[in-house]
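Below is how a single chain appears once it has passed through the pipeline. First comes the sequence as given, then the structure the pipeline wrote out for it. We keep one example in the README because the format questions we get most often are answered faster by looking than by reading.
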Amino acid sequence: MHRTTITALTLAAVMAAASFATPASAAAQFATAAAKPNLRACYDGKCKITITRPVSFRVAARYRLSRVWVSKVYAFNQDMVRVEGPGVATTLGAGGSGSINSLNVRVLSITDRGATVRFEG
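Resulting structure:
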């Protein structure tokens, strides 16, 4: 009987610990999913993304670019965002705006973790 009680208490402790761990891991998975930018939304040239690593995505043919690459770079002694397409590129600081072909770009913010960029077709 003593062994049964110990087994039951052990199982109860393990189940209780698992129930506390599950919401935390679910929250961590949600945070990871939320941090990933929706690059398909940028196809029409109108979107706002936050990047934490270099990304690339396709854009509509009207921009005369097959693909756009966006990355955070360190240039001119500051963090900047580089936006480039085949044969064209621009490097912008926080608050800066520019364009590649007819695709307008505005850097909304740059932090240690990444950058937020708005594309306006």
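The helical segments are 2-35.

See the next section for the split statistics.
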